[in-house]
Amino acid sequence: MPDRKARSRLLLLVNIALILLAIYISLTNGVFDMTVLDVIRTLLRIDPVAEYDLVIFDFRLPRIVIAALVGFGLGVAGTVIQGITRNGLADPGILGINAGAGAAIVAFMFFFGGQFMDASWYSIIAMPLFGLTGGLLAAGLIYLFAWRNGALDPQRLILVGIAIGSGLGAVSLYLSLKMNPNDFEMATVWLSGSIWSANWTHIAGMLPWLVILIPVLMRKVHILDLLQLSEESVKNLGVSVEKERNILLLSSIGIVSACVSVSGGIGFVGLMAPHIAKRLTGIQHRYVLPLSGTIGMLMVVAADFIAKTVFTPLELPVGIVISIIGVPYFFYLLSRRKK
């Protein structure tokens, strides 16, 4: 146990070091290159320069912070959803929860139009709530169709999730096609997973969700471990399975909805991060959950830097960059399960 604890701490420290490296590279490189000394002087307000202030505080830093928060949230939520369903292929994107949250937010954009574009406090607060409603709707439909003989059927879960995600994706596309040209362009980029419009207001809107819900999940890590046993065994231990599962699921959907509200449909982070964390530190969720969050953080921060620099002056949505890695990884996991 001490060895595993020490190993987990070491892995976290290594991952944090890699995240800091990715942040440093993202802050100093781009269309407007800066030295590390320029960044430090700007952050510490030593002889501030207007151009550096604009690049760091208005463009790069909010984007990096949102990428980090979204990556951490999706990594943690993916770990919990895999634990609840006892299915290593479960993921907020694959199960349709991303699509449900996205469809609800696109509906918000469709009905309120300019409210989304001007990033008002009303839209910043309302969008995660719309996303939560859509995510709950998707989760409810999944439960309804994947429930069999008094329990979730892992075989049906993925198929139902893909079907529901496709249907809700079609709803999002239909609504986006009905928008005016400006809102349509914004919605299209956002749906593919993009954080190019990041600002401090978005951060303030999503941060309370993570601050409240992630500690809830961290306090339930022992329940996640127990849920890997058969349902009868868990009940015999005195655990209220449905109550605990609902708390975990609702918290995860809330986190995913907050992430989707600022970054759109970024998939595969919640699939890959938990698998990588479990390979590195074992299956105990007290170690897996924080490591999975930091791995997700590293993935999104690095992918966002690639997305905004590789094809300069053009920019790819970060969701596409992650999908380039995520799709082959998903097929790799499928092939392993067959074996």
TrEMBL record:
One of its GO terms (biological process) is siderophore-iron import into cell. GO terms for molecular function: transmembrane transporter activity. GO terms for cellular component: plasma membrane. The chain crosses the membrane at residues 12-32, 61-81, 93-113, 119-145, 157-177, 197-218, 247-275, 287-307, 314-334. Its main location: membrane. It is found in: Cell membrane. SUPFAM superfamilies: ABC transporter involved in vitamin B12 uptake, BtuC. Keywords: Cell membrane, Membrane, Transmembrane, Transmembrane helix, Transport. It comes from the Bacteria. It is a multi-pass membrane protein. Gene3D superfamilies: ABC transporter involved in vitamin B12 uptake, BtuC. Belongs to the binding-protein-dependent transport system permease family. FecCD subfamily. This is Iron ABC transporter permease. It comes from Brevibacillus formosus.
